[in-house]
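Objective 1.3, modelling of assemblies. Example input:
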Amino acid sequence: MNEEIELRHLRYFLAVADSLHFTRAAQQLKIAQPALSQQIRRLEELLGHALFLRTTRGVQLTPAGSLLALRARTTLARVEDDLAQVRRVGRGEEGTLSVGFSGSVMFTELPAAIRRFRKRYPKVELQLREMWTSAQVEALRDGALDLGFLRDGEGNEGLATRTLLRERFVAVLPERHALAAKRTLRVNDLDGEPFILFSRAMGPLAYDRTIACCEQAGFVPEIVQYAPQFPTLFRLVAAGIGVSLAPACMARLSVPGAVYREVRSTARSTVDLAMRAGFESPLADNFVALLRTQIGSEERP
Amino acid sequence: MNEEIELRHLRYFLAVADSLHFTRAAQQLKIAQPALSQQIRRLEELLGHALFLRTTRGVQLTPAGSLLALRARTTLARVEDDLAQVRRVGRGEEGTLSVGFSGSVMFTELPAAIRRFRKRYPKVELQLREMWTSAQVEALRDGALDLGFLRDGEGNEGLATRTLLRERFVAVLPERHALAAKRTLRVNDLDGEPFILFSRAMGPLAYDRTIACCEQAGFVPEIVQYAPQFPTLFRLVAAGIGVSLAPACMARLSVPGAVYREVRSTARSTVDLAMRAGFESPLADNFVALLRTQIGSEERP
DNA sequence: CTTCATTCATAAGCCCAGCATATCAATACC
DNA sequence: GGTATTGATATGCTGGGCTTATGAATGAAG
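Predicted structure (tokens):
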């Protein structure tokens, strides 16, 4: 004999407590009256106390029954609320989404996409964390991040990536530099110039692609300085320490003393959306689905 | 197919969520593993979302599952607490007890009994309400009172009464009254004196017994004034408006200008405990049981 | 008072939800 | 590649919960 209380007992009890009438309560519950009496009796045995005072003409609640009616009502309501919330989380309409991004991605359409996501899913808490690409890869792998917007993040083992944007490179020059006079450069114009780049450890593929851009043009850049972020890097360029190559979107960041010039090259930098492979989060799925309609068509070949 | 969630589902779910292991959870629940898998699957179908991510090597919670684990834990704990509280109310250890009393009863041992009851059942809220006997009878009948301490409340239809105290009468006299010189009176000493009494509507039996006390002594008292309560009545006596008879306990109330004198009479006034007949309240039962040990032996013949 | 209606309890049997047993499939580990 | 582990699937059984039928008690009506 199962001694545990079940929600069924509470539902049945409340039906009787509401109507104070076994027969009507049974009809409402769509069961036969004896079945209802049986379950109420079981509940009373389980509690060790009577919940109703039966007269052959109707029933009424005992003090214990009155209290249980109060409590049972809130319990059932709470359970329903809980299930509804679990379903919302299941649908990805509620919860917490950890999103990492490389700093440069904030100069693309991502901020607008985030705004739309927040509007569509107001109950989702977005935790935005700026991280280097390689740090995001690690965080995605151990589950600290749900989603990452990586600068050149393709081809990482264990991550499912999708390329969102494909950008040209621009040359970053001191405004007094001789090459700044030209509107458009060839990459090999930069041959022999001192280069400032971010560290390879922050994003190997981004680094390699920048180098490859130069190598395509027939030279290997001489790197004289490393910088942790593009804004810092651009300030160093403005100070005349060297030149650089950066994804085109970064041209939106105006730094006094630094200018951007288009370069003719087939080399491209990408922004890639990454999530843990085989690890489905409805929240992340919803974010990705929204991005697909917003940014998907904005790839620049 | 029953589509309703039951506490069993939550219990099973939590077992798996705790151990993240179906087989071990099943052992802990003392059921077979397939039965557990079946119930979890049912719960997931009911929610429309997965709660666990199954790998052939262990399981882990989805975001929805994590949330449900939180909620289910509090739900089960709450239900247990609720049942415990209902049991306490069932045992009469908790709840609200409405106790009515005639004013004169507060001059007996009742206050001491109330103090003991409060100490023994600290979670019981005692609502004490001073009411005339007849008002108590009405309130008891319609359930507004759980228990009543009635002055001469025997023999009321629909109420179960038990006599707690049986008291002599005392004469109440102005201190300058000639009879005040005697230590003890005969009732018929009061023959011809103007009487002050409470209204018969407040307590018919108390009234009748007072009158009967006089009639036993061979006269019918001439009532010149009615008073709603004993303290008021005694003040009127002190003012020289008349004399009165009162239950002996009221002698504890000292009113300047009024004195009490024993009377030789077999007439008695009673304090009766009353509750609705056939209406068992564990709270009231506990109160009565406590009184039985405290006051039961204090009857004055 | 008798009769009828109402209402909850009891009795008896049925049926399916939940369970157990047996087995399979997939993966980690040596 | 073999073995162990773990959850899923298949199949049949069993008891708890249900239904139907009936009883008992009480109030209402005439």
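The longest helix of chain B spans residues 63-90.
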